[in-house]
Amino acid sequence: MKKLLLLALLCPALLMAQKNQDSVFIKKISDEIMRNGKAHDLLRELTKGIGGRLAGSPQFTKAVIWGEGALKAAGADKVFLQECLMPNWNRGGKDEATVVLMNNEKTARKLDVLALGNSLGTNGKTVTAPVIAVASFDELEAKKDLVKGKIVYYNHKFDAANIQTFRSYGEAGQYRRNGASRAAKYGAVGVMIRSLTEATDNIPHTGSMSYNDSFPKIPAVALGGYDADYVWKLSRQSSFQVSLKTNGHFLPDAVGHNVVAELTGSEFPDQFITVGGHLDSWDVNEGAHDDGAGIVQTIEILRTLKELGYRPKHSLRFVLFANEENGMKGGNRYASEAKDKNEKHVFALESDAGGFTPRGFGFTMSEPQLAKVQSWLPLLRPYGTESLTMGGGGADIGPLNRTFGTPIGGLVPDSQRYFDIHHARNDVFENVNKRELNLGAVNMAALLYLIDQYGL
Amino acid sequence: MKKLLLLALLCPALLMAQKNQDSVFIKKISDEIMRNGKAHDLLRELTKGIGGRLAGSPQFTKAVIWGEGALKAAGADKVFLQECLMPNWNRGGKDEATVVLMNNEKTARKLDVLALGNSLGTNGKTVTAPVIAVASFDELEAKKDLVKGKIVYYNHKFDAANIQTFRSYGEAGQYRRNGASRAAKYGAVGVMIRSLTEATDNIPHTGSMSYNDSFPKIPAVALGGYDADYVWKLSRQSSFQVSLKTNGHFLPDAVGHNVVAELTGSEFPDQFITVGGHLDSWDVNEGAHDDGAGIVQTIEILRTLKELGYRPKHSLRFVLFANEENGMKGGNRYASEAKDKNEKHVFALESDAGGFTPRGFGFTMSEPQLAKVQSWLPLLRPYGTESLTMGGGGADIGPLNRTFGTPIGGLVPDSQRYFDIHHARNDVFENVNKRELNLGAVNMAALLYLIDQYGL
Asked: In degrees, to the nearest 5, what angle opens at C-alpha B306 toward C-alphas B273 and B338?
């Protein structure tokens, strides 16, 4: 009875001491990253030294070699590659897509466009056709009899009232992904979409699309904001044609790699906690926010834990995934290899929403697991985390969740600026702020530390 | 007894209905600002059409006229000006400050500098002297016997480990404000400071300083980050001189104005709730974040409340303050006029920490008042507000608090990027994100609505 009483008295004190110890270690993590962090310098190397790195490009191969070196330099116990076969789409040079709008015989206006990723070109020909502009698939369906022989323009706009911009992106994404085949079904010869952005500029945004094999594979491009406004306004006033030429094509599948580093666990070496981002990016920019940020944060977390002499209980994996943008071969390979080896995965975390100031994490896990994570909020709040909510993860770690039911989470940076640069030419190093980038790594490292210490 | 029971039963329902009504109206505010907001367009006019607008400059006068027009167009019941006499400092042209560092006879390096605001020039002469570099006032005191005839360089750095960058600014600010006189006391002939920033560039940051009349008024400049690193490193290795020439001077005091708009209260027309920012800015940039953002948010809140047909209970004041940067004459005038007229001020709110994504508000008020404000957190959270804490306000509304004890608050945007652009050439329109700017206005308008409805 006395022992029990003593335990009851001691427990809160022990808990408090533990919490204090966690708070001290997380402060050490933060101080190290904010004062001595290498993420910004690594990002400069990746973006300025290598640049855009689409799956199958020579730059992607360079990035794998660079990543291997960076993870070793950061102090990994081991680094290994996981091979995968990736689609190898190529947009066909600098003048890959040309769209000229002809209002009447007297005026012609060249639009600033990018071919959508995975879209096929016009075989060296120019497709000239009248434009039919619609605001939605509903309008397309209503006007399906008018579509044959036309180029369909989708004008779906982001709803600026969505405070979370990913909601707008989700709503608009279907036009990029499925717009071509939905129009081809009714005989369209090409599609143009309003770029998935509400940026106040004319920069077009590319991104992945796919064809439904039942219909002709027609060309597909994205327009910048000003041109989109112009085309939409014109379509309300008069009829007009555009001439469209694109060069997208697939080369033979390419060999690529996930780059995986490990810090071996001291208590549970066969149980894994994964953190990562994706190493590939679109070809038209430097992939600085998407997802250079996630890559260098991942490497920085490894460097920091080593620098602080932290010996993890579980084995920590730091993964630079291949081919997220237009094939998901890297993420799938990671999960399938884990399955083949019957690995036990405790948790996986991804940063793939930009290197902006962190606001929290979103999770796909059980309610009790989420409740446990939420109990750590006071430890994370000083570093910017305010919300730990259900819903989230990352494209590359999704397969792990679907294969094993592994709980997953994703860093939630502030999303207001993301779609200004997402998949566009201006996703460059200069648009990433060093402090915001580092602060993301701080919050991620702190969360990983807590999960390593206490499990889920 | 039955009545009491009924009331007790109804009360939570009534409270719930009220809360729901508030939530609906705040959503209307948000939708209006995010979808139809004019703040970004107004900011373009103010920054690109008028530009930097230091007290006393022709641009400041233009800005007053512009602000009057904008507040009228936004639907004010009345707009009036409050005159004040402002200091009229002028840095003396484009080549206002020149600093050349001479390592030895063979090399000379021109540094990128800005004279500190209110600092006096070298009367057309060039001051050439050896440099003594110190990291702090403590080091200056320790080396005071070596200072005579020298140019003192202060190398105080932001501590990157401070998550709230305003803390770093607070720690560093004393070198800009008092560094010249602290060095002149020991016979220094000039001072240079490391700019108050941790930006990864070489752009110098100006800002206000003042002299202690007991000592000579020596020239004072700020260096950009790379040059600061260079000077500091060199000072550890060898002795060197710099040649320094500045042209700062005061012209006769200038007449300026606060621009004040009102929506007259329906229940308490003689009780005022104020919201504002400052219309003046430094001369070397467009004053886009500092404080164009606060100005256009203020006008946008007026426009939105009018557009939604909101009739405030209290009289709402929308104030564009004069001369915050180097004199505070506008804020002082607003409070002194309120005192002269025996006005009753319920609350005042300022936005002067940049047009970045909002994270909450800081307040100077009583604990019970703060508790009341904190009870509204669930209503504000959907729009980005996460913290409602003690500590904060704004320079222009500080006098109101000191005069009457009026509770005051300040918008707290995310602070990670602020000191990259603060008082520097790159505080321009292009560096303000439309969504972040609008979202600040949403949170401010929602808070003002709640205080108007329920008081403090």
From this structure: 25
> Per-domain residue ranges for chain B?
24-84+255-454, 95-249
How far apart CA B285 and CA B282 sit, in angstroms, is: 6
When CB atoms are compared, the residue of A198, A200, A433 closest to B416 is: A433
Q: Count of CB atoms within 10 A of residue B448's CB?
A: 23
C-alpha to C-alpha distances, A276 to A76, A291, A298, A300, B79, nearest whole angstrom = 14, 10, 6, 11, 56
∠ Cα B354 B357 B359 (to 5°):
100
Please indicate whether residue A324 is annotated as part of the active site.
Answer: yes
What per-residue confidence (pLDDT) applies to A108? 87
Give the DSSP letter of residue B413.
E
Query: Residue A29 in contact with residue A279, Cβ under 8 Å?
Result: no
Chain A residues near residue B41 by CB distance under 8 angstroms: none
Among the partner residues A159, A163, A417, nearest to B384 by beta-carbon distance: A163
Window 359-378 of A, Cβ < 8 Å to B = 359
Please list every residue in chain B whose beta carbon sits closer than 8 Å to the beta carbon of residue A434. 198, 200
- How do residues A88-113 score in pLDDT, each as one tens digit? 999 998 778 888 888 766 678 899 99
Cα separation of A280 and A204, whole Å? 20
C-alpha B167/C-alpha B152 separation (Å) is 24
pLDDT in tens, A225-255: 999 999 999 999 989 999 999 999 999 999 9
pLDDT tens figures, B84-116: 999 999 999 877 888 888 876 667 889 999 999
Is the CB of B414 less than 8 angstroms away from the CB of A414?
yes
Res A94: pLDDT? 74
Nearest CA in chain B to A420: B433
According to CATH, what is the number of the domain A95-248?
Answer: 3.50.30.30
CATH no., domain B95-249 = 3.50.30.30
Name which of A248, A246, A302, A251 is nearest A276 in CA terms: A302
- The percentage of residues in chain A with a pLDDT greater than 70, rounded to a whole number, is 97
Total Cβ atoms within 10 A of residue A320: 30
Closest residue in chain B to residue A159, using alpha carbons only: B35
Strand-by-strand arrangement of the B314-321 sheet = B78-90, B249-263, B314-321, B268-278, B344-350, B408-413, B358-364, B387-390
Q: In this complex, is the C-beta atom of B419 within 8 Å of any C-beta atom belonging to chain A? A: no
Task: Give the CATH class of B24-84+255-454.
Answer: alpha beta
Query: Cβ of A198 and B435 within 8 Å?
Result: yes
Q: Which residue of A has its CA nearest to B33?
A: A161
Cα B410 from Cα B393, distance rounded (Å): 4
Assess contact for B67 and B320: CB atoms under 8 A: yes
Which residues of B have a catalytic role annotated?
Answer: 324
In CATH terms, the fold of domain A27-85+253-454 is: Aminopeptidase (3.40.630)
Polymer length in residues for chain A: 456
How big is the A-B interface in CB pairs under 8 Å? Answer: 66
Prediction pTM value: 0.95
Nearest-Cα residue of chain B relative to residue A383: B163
Q: From the CB of residue A309, how many other CB atoms can be counted at a distance below 10 Å?
A: 7
The answer on pLDDT for A173 being more than 50 is yes
CB-based contact A159 B35, cutoff 8 Å:
yes
CA B173/CA B159 separation, integer angstroms: 13
pLDDT band at B304 (very low <50, low <70, confident <90, very high): very high
Pairing of strands B268-278, B344-350: parallel
